[in-house]
Prior knowledge:
Shape: globular
Structural class: alpha+beta
Number of helices: 13
Radius of gyration: 22 Å
Distance between the termini: 32 Å
Order of helices and strands: EHHEHEEHEEHHHEEHEEHHHEHH
Largest sheet: 5 strands, antiparallel
Helix content: 40-55%
Number of domains: 2
Oligomer: single chain
Amino acid sequence: MGHGEKEMQKPVSEMAKYIKNLVPANIAEDYNIKPMFNVVASDENIRKGVIAFRDFLYIFCDCLISDGHLYVKLKKTYSPTDYPFLHNISNLLVDIGYHGKFSENNDSLLLTGVPLCTGPKAKMSGNVFMECLRFLTLCGLEFTGVDLNAKMPDFSENPLVVTYPHDPLLLTGLIALSIADMELRESRRYWNDLFLLGCHYWLLQVEPPDMLGILKNLIHPLSDDVKQFILELHKRYIDMGLTCVTFTRADTLFAYSLTKNSKSSLSTQDIYQKRVWEFAVSMKDGYCMRVRSKKTDKYPDIIAGFHPFLQNKIAQGYGCDRKLRGERCQGGCQGIRLPLNETIVEMKQDIITWLDQEI
C-alpha cells in the first residue's frame, strides 16, 4: 500500500468473476455442525442454508457483472483491487446475519438497527447503506421497514425486515457464516476483506477441515493437467510431513510449512509464517505458485539442469522489488512467483526436485 505508482482499477465485473471462481463449487452434505450453532437451527437446516448462501453468491456475482458498473466508480489507486462498495456489502451482510433475529416463522430476519450505520461506532454512512440495500434487492433479498427510495435510513418506528423468498434457508446459512466470520476465523478480521463472500463453511464443522477438498474447490477453474499437478504436489508433501493451511487476506492462499520440529502448538498464522511455498489466487496475479526458496546456493549443479524459465526465476531470487531491482512494489517479498498454467506442467519434475531440495 503506497508503494510505487497508482494504477487504474479493472472493471468491477472482473472482480466479480474472480470472487465467483472462489465460491466453493462442491460442499459436503454430511458434516457435523459445532454445538455452538445449536441455537441457530438444526444441523440439516444449517447445511442447507450454507448451500443456499453459496447459490446466492453466484447470483450476487452475476448481478455485479451485469450492473456493478452502476454502483462502482473506478479510480486510480495504490491498491487497484480495493473496491469499497464490495467491502461495504460484505460487512453489511455480516451485520445482518450476526445481529438479525429470526421472526416467529423463521422466514425473515429482524433488526432494530444496523450497527454499521447506527450508533456511536457507525462505519457506514446512511446513503451508502441505502445504496447497498438497493443493490442487494437486485440479488433477490427483500427489505421492508425502510424506504428504499430514501436517501437515509430511519429505524425509529419499524425494524428492518430481511427476507429471501427464493429460499428462506439462506437466512440460516447467513447467520451461521456471519458468526463464523466474527468469532471463528483464525486470520485477523479487516474491514476491507471479503471473507464472507468466500463461503468458508468448514469453520462450522466439528471435524478438522478437509484440506484436499478445500484445495480442489480453490483450483476448480484450472485445466485438468494443472489441477492434477497441484494435487500431486499436495499429496507428495503432506505424505512427507508438511503441514498445510488455508489463509485469506487480500489473496486466497494455500500454504505448505515445515512444522515437525516446533515444540509448541502453532496457530494458523504461525504455520503460515513458516511456509516454504503456497498456491495463491489474487485479482492481480491470478492463479500462481509462490516459493520462498532459501537453500539454492547449496545445489547449483541441480539447478543448472532445470528448465530455462525456472532457472531464470530462481536466479532472480525474491525480496523487496524496490531494493532488489529498483522497481515498484509487486509483492516480490512473497516468494518466486510461477503462473499456474500449462508452462508449469512442462517443469513438473524440476519443480518437485527443487522443492525436495528446499525441505
